[in-house]
Every structure is written in C-alpha cells, then in structure tokens.
Write a structure and sequence with these properties.
The structure is a single chain. By secondary structure, the protein is of the alpha/beta class. The chain is built from 13 helices and twelve strands. Helix 2 links the parallel strand 1 and strand 2.
Length: 406
Amino acid sequence: RLDAAQGGHGGAGRDAPELSVRVPVVLALIALVLGVWTLNSPRRLRSATDDGVGDDGVGDNGVRAGAREVSVIIPARDEAHNLPRLLASLAASRQRPAEVIVVDDGSTDGTADVAASFGAVVLTAAPLPSGWVGKNWACHLGAQRAETATLMFLDADTWLSCDALDALVSTHAAVGGLVSVQPYHRVRRAYERLSAVFNLASLMGSGAFGLRVASRVRVAFGPCLVTSVDDYRRVGGHESVRGEIVEDIALAARYADAALAVTCVLGGQHVGFRMYPNGLRSLVQGWSKNIATGASRAPASRVVPSVLWVMAVAAVETAFIGGVIGWVTGGARPVAASIAWLAVTVHIATMLRSIGSFGAATAIVFMVPLVFFVIIFGRAMVLAVMRRPVQWRGRAVLTSTDRSGR
C-alpha cells in the first residue's frame, strides 16, 4: 500500500512539471494572438514622396496628394518651449497652411510672444466659461476665427515633416469626416519609456488598427485632427463636447453618431511628438487623467482583448523572472519560460517600433513599464471612484462626472 501511494504521488509530481512547462508557452501564444488581433499592421500616414507612391501621386492607401487651403489651430497653455519646433515645421512645409492660429489659453511663459515671432495669428482666450474644459474652449475659439474650409487641430508638442501637411489634407479629402493621427512617440529620457504600455493599450483598445476594424470607429487621437468646417459644425464642434476632458474620444463619437467617417492612422515619419517631457510627475498626472476619464469610453469589445493581452504578457514576464530566480538558486533551467519570454519580447519590440522610439531595451525590461502601468491604472481608478481631481497644467481636472454633467 505504501509503494502504491508513493507511486501515485510520483505521477502527480510528474504532471506538475509538465503543466508548468506548458503554461508559459500557452500564455505567450495567447499574447501573440491578441496582439495581432488588436494591433495588426496599423496604417501610417503617407505622402507623395513615400515609397509606394506612383507618378500620379496616389499611394498604396489610395490617397492623392494635392495642395489645399487649411487653417491650423493650436491650443496652447504654457507652451513656449514646444511651439518653436511645431511652428518651424509648419513654416518648412512644402504646402504652407493658409493660416496658423495659436490660441493662448492663459499662459504665463511667453507663449504668445513665441507664436507671434513665427508670424502666427495669436488669439488670447477669454476667461474659461463655466462648464468648459480649457483645451476645448481654445479649440472652439480658434475654429470660430478660421477662414478656410478645412480645419487642422494640432497639439503644441507635435511637429510635422515637410510633406505631412499635404498628406493630412489629402487623406481627409479622400475619406472625409474626421481624420485622426496618433503621432510617432519620440522618447528622449529614460522615464518616458514608462509610457510604452499606455501607448500600446490605447491603440489596441481603439478598434481602429486590428484585423477587423470596427465599421464605425468611435475613437480619435487629439494631438492631430483634420476635418472640414461643414462637418465640424454639423456635429457641433468642440462646443458639443465642451465639458469632456478626453475630448478626442467624445468628438469622434459625435462624428460616428452623425454617420461621418472617423479614420485613424499612425504618424510614422510625418507626425511626431513627445509625451510629458516635463518630468515623471507630469507623466503620472497625464496618464492618470487619461485613464480615469477615458477608459470607460472605449468599447468593451476592444478593451477586454487589450486587458487580456496585458495580463498574458505580465504572466509570461513573471514566469520567466521566477524561472530565472529558481535556476540561480539551484532549480531546473527555465527553458519553456525563456522561449515564451523571447517570443513575447520580439512581439512587443515589433509593436513598439511602429508607434515610437522606445527601442529594444524597453521590450527587454517590459516588466518595469508593466508594473508602472498597473500602479497608475489603480491610482486612476481610485481617483475616479472617489471623484478626486487631478492637477493638470495648473487646473484641477475632475476625473468623473455625475448625472447632471458636473
């Protein structure tokens, strides 16, 4: 009886290692499938000078290049350090905008003087009316001042290639509605790499870049938007989303509800930006604001796969780290966990390459931005539940709304 019992325990012991070998591999496969499903070869903005564009000016995305008048509107609050690069890039464009309007939203750092030195039209925003968010108010004022039939809203921390302006208005002319660009994220300092998971999750949850793009996209990216004046007025413009903190998603929903197309592309080599270059504190505040106010607006059918992807990747990373620690302390080599980790790391590096200059090192130590993501996500949810404001650009931003819209 003792021998039989020992044999039975031995069989169970053999099953456990086999299971532990299979789990990391299965989790890696889940991560790869979910990654491809939600972020599969996203379309990039292309110009007439890019590869794949013929003599007729038509690229492989069906967009024809051509000069058209456009009003560029830049909402700016304490952006004197960012504006020179953006305004210089606009001045160097092959297609010059008809007008550049910088709306100074209560700046204290000489934003207006910098804008004027580049020849931009400078509007000083009136005091923020009750019920308005600062950026929405600035965009609204700029749109009212614009004199062309096409509007382009650019955040002050973006910049364009010399061909980008033409590519943007040409893309809009081809598809209509609202064209939205997620700029290529240029990383300069180590802490900025902590944005990697946030960037990936936002793109994966948008529904605009997967194997099956939603028939009516309801998500947009605020740093770069292009629309006609007619469509903008038809949906009510920024006035219709005046109290929305994540105005890009709310505005995209307005276009979708009006049966107008919302087209999302990546900036690639043509539209770039730096997110939260003013230090770790600004990065924490910015992502806390975005998560607490915007997470509930993304469709559940897209949020769930991106959340599962994060969980699968975290499990593979944990299995690999645990296996290495066990091996160092005298255990078996974590062969399966290492193979799973390598596959996931290559997968992450490939995705990161298309959205920013995060580099292979970020993929290798991906557990660090993963842990940071979980911490900030938890913090944002606590702020939302407790209805605590987040400080952003010197203003208290509410992270949730009640039924009366407050």
